[in-house]
Every structure is written in structure tokens, then in C-alpha cells.
């Protein structure tokens, strides 16, 4: 007898309950010191490293990107982003994933911009509505640390969202989060990229030694959009740093890299590794609507699909059935 898992997706019921968005300063302060400071000491506190290194059962998580508060209006306001994030939060609280990860460009304003603080405050306010039992993992993008990140801009990000690179285990799967903005442009903080590289190598070795069921990576910039050796452009990582990094990830048998930044979906492979670029929660720049990705993690691999905000399934069920074949 063989056990196999099947993903059941029950379609679709759109729920549009209005959500309260008023929140006291005290609640906000609590939220920023708790929920948004989980990434610390290069790990994510909600997940116990020892306990989570063992495979338990299939699970799913939700991957989002580019909430980018302020992008629709050129930083004048953020009503449209608030509306979209509220809808995303309703989906999160209904579907109850193992965790949610937002792959960067949380706000449109960069740290030195006068509108930065209010956009961060709104992000904190809206994502504080995620059920406290569902960990929310935040990843930095180029808008969060600047196109040429510096020690100062990264420090500012960390005050609001915790570490810029870290790793955490969930049910036998090793998840590695990178600061891809220093991979994109290292001029402002070469020492951060060097430290991240040394750390990454250690993480990959440890994941292999601990026999991780899968290694998944998360960052803002796609390493590439479609082809691993495609020419350099705004949306990918320069070949000079992409090529050696891909070799390192293939060597460690990384299953998939998840990114955003492109504001639409794109897919490619490097050997057996998937490069998955996910459309925005916020403003789209192509035909893919605002939405997010649901990723199911099975013992044998992963399955994933992008859902527009209006098409999200009512429920995700991971069914385990026995099969006599
Ligand atoms: Zn970006």
C-alpha cells in the first residue's frame, strides 16, 4: 500500500466583508515590537528550529509580493493598496496557511522619503489583522532598502521589519530568505553582501547535513525571469553574481526560489530548481491581476498556483488517501 497526497481546491466563494482598520497607537506599538520583529538573530522566532526540522505532514503557505503602499497614487495616498491588502488578509484568515511570506516592496516610499513612515504604519496596521496564530514573514525589496542599499537604509528596515536575511524551518523544510537588493547592487554595502554569502553557504550546508526534505528560498528580485542565462536587465540579478549563486543553489539541491518585483508572474528553471516570480498584491504591471500564490508542500515536492484576488478558492484541503497500487 502506498500513501499519496492530493490537493483539493474547492472553488470559489468571494467574500467581501468590510474590515475594521482602526487601531490604537498602543496596538500599533505592540504589533511592531511583536509580529514585525520575529526575524531576529538570523532566524524567525515563531518557528522552533529543533522541533521544525522533522517532516510532519503536507502543508501549504501563501507567498505574496509588492504590496507597495503608495504605488497606485505616486505616494499621494494608499487607498487602493489598503483595499487589496484587506482582501488578502481576509483570504489568509479564512484559508489558515502554515505561514504567509511577503517578498518585498512592502511600501513604495524608500526609507529616506517623507511618506515612508506613514506607509510603514499602514502596512503594520493592516497586517496586524492577520490571525495571531499565522506567522507573517516579511522580506526586504529595493523600495524597502533602496536601489543601492546602505548600512543605514538596512538598519532602518530592520527597525520596522526585523532582519533582512534569515532562515527558518517549517515541518522538515528549510526556508532561506535573502536580501536580494545587495545582490542587485552591492556598491553601497559590499560588506553586507559578503556576510550574507558566507552565511548562505553555512545555511545550505546545514540544511543538507540535517537532511531537509526541501530547501526553499525567498527574495525580492528574481534571479532570472525565464532563462537562467538571460541577459541582465532591471528585473533580474546581474549574471556576474547570478551564475555563481545558481551553481551554489543547484549544488545544494534547492527546490525553488520565490520572488516578486516584476509585478506579474514569470517562471523558469535552472536544472531541477524552479524560479518562481509572483505577481503583486498591489499594483499590477501586466495582465496578471493583483493576487498571491498558494504553495502546497508535499513530501515528494511542491505544487503552486497564482490566484487573482477575486478567484481565490474558498478552502484548501490537503487530503491524505491510501492507494493499493
Ligand atoms: Zn521591487
Automatic annotation (TrEMBL):
InterPro entries: Calcineurin-like_PHP (IPR004843), Metallo-depent_PP-like (IPR029052), STPP_CPPED1 (IPR051918). It comes from the Bacteria. Pfam families: Metallophos. The keyword Signal applies. One of its GO terms (molecular function) is hydrolase activity. Residues 1-20 form the signal peptide. SUPFAM superfamilies: Metallo-dependent phosphatases. Keywords: Signal. Residues 63-264 form the Calcineurin-like phosphoesterase domain. This is Calcineurin-like phosphoesterase superfamily domain protein. The lineage of its organism: Bacteria, Pseudomonadati, Planctomycetota, Planctomycetia, Pirellulales.
